Amino acid sequence: MTFIEFYLEKCWTGYTQRGMKKKGKKQVPNCVPVKEEKNVNLSVSRGEKLPVSKGAGLTAKGRAKYNRETGSNLKAPQPEGGSRKKSFCARSSAWIPSGGCAGKDTRGCAARRRWKC
Fold this sequence. Notes:
This protein has about 120 residues and is α+β, with helices and mostly antiparallel strands. It folds into two domains: about 5-35, no CATH class; about 50-115, no CATH class. Helices cover about 30% and strands about 15% of the residues. It has four helices and two strands, in the order αββααα. β1 (about 15-25) and β2 form a beta hairpin. The chain is elongated, with a radius of gyration of 22 Å.
């Protein structure tokens, strides 16, 4: 078996190769499970997210649906403070348009207002 044949060795169904790894003294394909992306359809009309005029974010119903369908653990906003507020404000600072958020009607600016960033 040549190196190319060895490197291109197939993984099991449902797995994909992500480089090589050492197993003992040999190099073997690193086969990892393929992750399926789950798209969750959330709607303002069904009450799962808020419109931009009311702060743009998920409602408790929307968070419950998202958590149920993806296995995540989304939590409610912390606009009063805490480590999650600091983290959100730092991550979302890139969402600010060049002229600032004053008077802007975008979901990002509305979410930052809701979190009091």
